Amino acid sequence: MRPILLLAPAVSLAALLSSTAAHAACVESPSGTYTCTGLQTGGLADNDDDVSVTIDLGAEVENNSGDALRVRGNDTVVENNGTLTADGDGVDSGDNGSGLTVTNNGTINANARGVNADDEDDVTVINTGLINAPSNDGIRLGNGANATFLNSGTLISGDEGMEAGDNATVTNDIGASITAVEDAIQIGEAASITNSGTIQSTGTDGDGVDMDSGTVVNTATGSISTAASSSAGIDFDASSVLVSTIINSGTIAGGIGIQVELGGADPANVQTQIVRTDGVIIGSGGIAMDLGASDDQVAIFDDLTFQSTADYNLGSGAPVQIVGKTNLGTGEDTLAFLNTADGGMIYDAVLNDLFDGGADTDTVIFSASKSDLTASTLIADILSLTFEDSGMAQVLNFKDFEFFTFGADRLTGLGGTTYAAAELTAPVPLPAGFVLLGGGLAALGAARARRKG
Ligand SMILES: [Ca+2]
Ligand SMILES: [Ca+2]
Ligand SMILES: [Ca+2]
Ligand SMILES: [Ca+2]
């Protein structure tokens, strides 16, 4: 038995030495430039600046006790056409610094973060493949500024999908997905998000998008959502930027559809939000939009195709839906219903929940003319207006709006004729009118006097 025992380790050692040589599949030439063509175990580490790593199709860099790529210098370039497999991060670019570019056309399977560059600025991640980080963040940039994430592939995260600081740009293409247990996207001020794919939080307290300020364009194929009943499709945290804009032809859905922090658990956002939608906004908990303080604008269009650009197409052709209440909050807010057809009202829309102007002087704008307003009732502070045209009808319910404009421009919402809310309620029969009309009494008396004379 003894010779056999001695023989066995000798064979294993030879095999180990042989395989170690074979596993150094990343070749450095010239200095700082690596090309990986086979299986490299134990990861690859080079923390100098200007390092470049290319993993060829079919090649793999694997590390079962750390990061696949540990490249902590500045201006690192990674192109993965193969596979990165790591017990740690797929790509670890270290903390701070700047200039990481990762193009993933293959697969990154990381037990920690897919791409980790905490607080690093000017990071670009282009993903056409799979970034799979089921236990941690997909792309973690902390407060790193000027991040760019172009996704036409799949990102899966057990924590936050993509986290970055101010001035981030995210483009999520048709068919692409960003799926996370916590916030799918968590970014700061002046963000720019263009979504034609799926951005979703699947956990119990994550938002689809959590941002401070910026612009979100959600095209007809785009969906931004959370499964969490207490969270939002899009959540605006406190911000120092005056105006943010959401243009939606797709679906935005959550416990609250669009939430502006009002100052509960999180500090309040007191800036202006502008929402233009011909798509679907759903608040499954009963609030579709909570826009908070400052002068906010919601414009509901039959068709936003006219706002398409070279970069994106708007207009779904499907009926617009606002499911849940819309709260415009304090400030002088405006709410518009604009349609180039059907006499100006949006008759195929689902708009039966309450629109609440909240405190201060708020205005509703219709492209429909006042002659299409066929009924108006005020019951317990809720003004219900019925519009009818060619056998179609739409009933809209308002609270705390002080002015109503009819016949406004069908694209801009400008112009038209404005009435005070009280002018829209049905005339109250006498003698109750003498008690309720108050100041109107003198005018009424004067009219009678003239008639007598
Ligand atoms: Ca606001
Ligand atoms: Ca407001
Ligand atoms: Ca208001
Ligand atoms: Ca008001």
UniProtKB/TrEMBL annotation:
Record key words, sorted: Membrane, Signal, Transmembrane, Transmembrane helix
Name assigned to this protein: VPLPA-CTERM sorting domain-containing protein
Regions crossing the membrane: 428-447
InterPro entries, per database record: VPLPA-CTERM
Signal sequence interval, chain numbering: 1-24
Species classification: Bacteria, Pseudomonadati, Pseudomonadota, Alphaproteobacteria, Rhodobacterales
Domain of life: Bacteria
